[in-house]
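ASSEMBLY PREDICTION REQUEST
Request ID: AP-0331
Submitted by: J.K., bench scientist
Number of chains: four
Total residues: 404
Priority: normal
Notes: Please return the full assembly, not individual chains.
Input sequences:
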Amino acid sequence: MSALVEFAMFPTDKGESVSAYVSRIMKAFDEKGVEYQLTPMGTIFECDTVEEATKLIDLAYSVLEPDCNRVYTTIKMDIRKGRSGRMKQKIESIQRRLSES
Amino acid sequence: MSALVEFAMFPTDKGESVSAYVSRIMKAFDEKGVEYQLTPMGTIFECDTVEEATKLIDLAYSVLEPDCNRVYTTIKMDIRKGRSGRMKQKIESIQRRLSES
Amino acid sequence: MSALVEFAMFPTDKGESVSAYVSRIMKAFDEKGVEYQLTPMGTIFECDTVEEATKLIDLAYSVLEPDCNRVYTTIKMDIRKGRSGRMKQKIESIQRRLSES
Amino acid sequence: MSALVEFAMFPTDKGESVSAYVSRIMKAFDEKGVEYQLTPMGTIFECDTVEEATKLIDLAYSVLEPDCNRVYTTIKMDIRKGRSGRMKQKIESIQRRLSES
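STATUS: Completed
Returned structure:
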């Protein structure tokens, strides 16, 4: 099973620039050995179960919690049984179709 | 602490109409005694922690998992320390300002 | 055709409380005669076309733009041909199934 | 001004695999000369105004509309005045902080 997740999480009580806070989450993921893709609008990772995926969301919040009074997060998941390695596969599938058309 | 959550979750391998699947999630929430607000675009609930909130996301997926091969979900959370009862408060706060203006 | 929209839009450079800004958007919708449902996590409205829907997003931003340096928005749309009046219908469809089960 | 957009759009009445439909949107963007980044969970692009951004959402729907009865889309925008070139900048800003920590 593959739970592909894209999420953004940031404090809304820290003014206009929040990269210092977002980078904490990336650091926590690095320390835990989570493979992720950083995009200009969020972070993408893949888990074998939904439970694992939501635990990483919990982790992300835990590193902002100590000094952030208000935090906003948007999360989307595309969950598909019988698959894995979809961080590459999904893009390749689109690109193959594009090159064929 | 208040983790206010809005989410939508539905199978994408079951054709155009998915209300039968969505209602399973509501049934699971009812059985667990979770208070929620159903909207035309999703479900809103409030938890005391982010962990509780993500566990309800896990629960929602667990009732679709048995017969859904592909499931999509979008989740947003507005997490604020030192608050509770925000399902009503947030709307009232906007409406007060509207009536004042 | 029915484009059902749920969106949240708020400045991220104005500190923790943003209801004064969000209520501006509601005021603009009221003045334009847009019917909407306010929820604790966003605003829901229905249009006959996607173009109409995205123009209301443009309108929402236009009332924040003058004094907000950074604005975040999340939007989801459920677009379905041959339908209308879905702000009520979708909820009723879920509730009917819940009462049957 | 920079309107950074991440969106996913797909039919929900076409079964489990939707890459053929998603690639149509990419083709339309290619034909229009829109620069975008394809991720496993969506498409990211940057515009100078919110109106331009929402017009590209309209375009995306227009290529699905002919044969898709139901379409779902999630969109998020991070709009910031006085900036441009943020598809690279935002990631670099996070990475700089990560390497410093």
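REVIEWER COMMENTS: Chain A has a mean pLDDT of 96.
SIGN-OFF: pending second reviewer
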